[in-house]
Amino acid sequence: MTADGATSDSAAVNPTEPPPVPLVNIANILTVSRLALVPVFLVALFWDGGHDTLWRWIATGVFAIASITDRIDGDLARKRGLVTDFGKVADPIADKALTGAALVGLSLLGDLDWWITWVIIGREVAVTLLRFWVIRHGVIPASHGGKVKTLLQALAIGLYLLPLGSWTDIPRWIVMGAALVATVGTGLDYVVRAVRLRAAGRAKVGA
């Protein structure tokens, strides 16, 4: 059988096999761009002591743009069939890098209590460890609560970044309080689902 014949036979066997998803696609480019914006955001946040009005607006704008790309890249990847292994790994890394940088930066500047930063970052670290704990048995999909949590965190951080004066203190506390409730609540839900998934996986192995 010739090489040309083998190629033809292979194509005949799998005529509907979709082409491989290219690594360089719009969804992955947005994800990498969000990660690249993290140091830009930090420079703007800490420029001129961290409380210059103009630079705080710039930092807020950079954070907003990066947060918007989080929603866009995921939608594009799913709707256009651009999901890749790279994107699955890079997307959550970019999200956590942006959120963590903003929280730590605000705490270093004295604008946000450290305990809030540690609660949110601690939850994200715990969930990441849980993912590795159950990875042999499956993947826990993102829940609606998790999406709400991400949105509330972004809104709360945005309010703390905005240089609008003390009159925004109450809205900040309210939105951050809601973000903390969602953060802890979805974290506990993830623990329950992880334990159930691992138990189900071990049961299948023992059956």
Molecular structure report:
This protein is an all-alpha fold and 207 residues long. It has a single domain (20-206), classed as Four Helix Bundle (Hemerythrin (Met), subunit A), CATH 1.20.120. It is 77% helix and 0% strand. The protein contains 7 helices and no strands. The chain has helices at 3-13, 26-46, 53-79, 85-108, 114-134, 144-161, 169-206. Helix 2 (26-46) runs parallel beside helix 4, helix 4 packs parallel to helix 6 (144-161) and helix 6 packs antiparallel against helix 7. The radius of gyration is 21 Å and the shape is globular.
List keywords for this structure.
single chain; 0% strand; 7 helices; mainly alpha; globular; 207 residues; Four Helix Bundle (Hemerythrin (Met), subunit A); 77% helix
CATH architecture: Up-down Bundle
The level of helicity is: over 70%
**Shape assignment:** globular
Oligomeric nature of the chains: single chain
At the fold tier of CATH, the topology name is: Four Helix Bundle (Hemerythrin (Met), subunit A)
- Name of the CATH class: Mainly Alpha
How many domains would you count in the coordinates? 1
Average predicted local confidence, pLDDT: 82
- Cα distance spanning the termini: 46 Å
Number of strands: 0
Q: DSSP helix count?
A: 7
Give the biggest beta sheet. none
Query: Helix/strand-derived class?
Result: mainly alpha
Compute the CA-based radius of gyration. 21 Å
Q: Uncertain segments of ≥5 residues (pLDDT<50)? A: 6-13
The CATH superfamily appears as CDP-alcohol phosphotransferase transmembrane (TM) domain
Give the topology string: H per helix, E per strand: HHHHHHH
User: What share of the residues does DSSP label as strand, in percent?
Assistant: under 5%
